[in-house]
Amino acid sequence: VLAPMVGASELAFRLLCRRHGAQLCYTPMMHSSRFASDAAYRAAELCTAQGDGPLVAHFCGNDGATLLAAARLAERASNVVAVDLNLGCPQRSAHSGHYGAFL
Known about the structure:
Elements: H1 11-19, E1 25-26, E2 30-31, H2 32-37, H3 39-45, E3 55-60, H4 64-74, E4 80-85, H5 92-96
Parallel strand pairs: 1-3, 2-3, 3-4
Domain DUS-like FMN-binding: 2-103
Enzyme class: oxidoreductase
Pfam families: Dus
């Protein structure tokens, strides 16, 4: 399993890791509010391709309705099989944004 990593879980890295045995990969952390409301952000952040499955969409956020809306949009991507909520990020940005370990 290739866990979500800031700056490293993008498509090219996931495909490389899959060639070397990774069977399940996560997207980088995506902000649920932007994902739910901004089609350009969605297209840029949830890049996938043939061979990039199964894939887990990894979100941060603190509003249940927004997280659900983002998850429903992510499930439309052909390779997405699950959704993950970031509950552990200890970075200051997570605390000030009221997500991650703040929750």
